[in-house]
Amino acid sequence: MIFTPDVVAQIARHMNDDHAEDNVLIVRGLGGVGAASAARMSGLDADGMEFEATVDGIAVPVRIPFPERLTERRQVRGEAVRMYREACTALGVEPRH
């Protein structure tokens, strides 16, 4: 298992603390939850990233699969960036980074 609970917690903390707005764009653009007002990363495994989106005050689970299975922790950053950029494209938003 490449994503131990500690590793998942570290990645989630980074995504939620430093990329909260990106999380919202990802669940809106790629997760099919266009009405999300907030989103936090809630999990991760080799096949996808999980979020908890907020829609009208209700928590909605969202899973976004990776195009291929990850085999190393360092791949997560690239996948997060890819998801963010694809979500921006889908939503017609200019990427900030």
TrEMBL record:
Domain DUF2470 intervals: 9-83
Xref: Gene3D superfamilies: PNP-oxidase-like
A Pfam family of this chain: DUF2470
Protein name: Uncharacterized protein DUF2470
Highest classification ranks of the organism: Bacteria, Bacillati, Actinomycetota, Actinomycetes, Micromonosporales
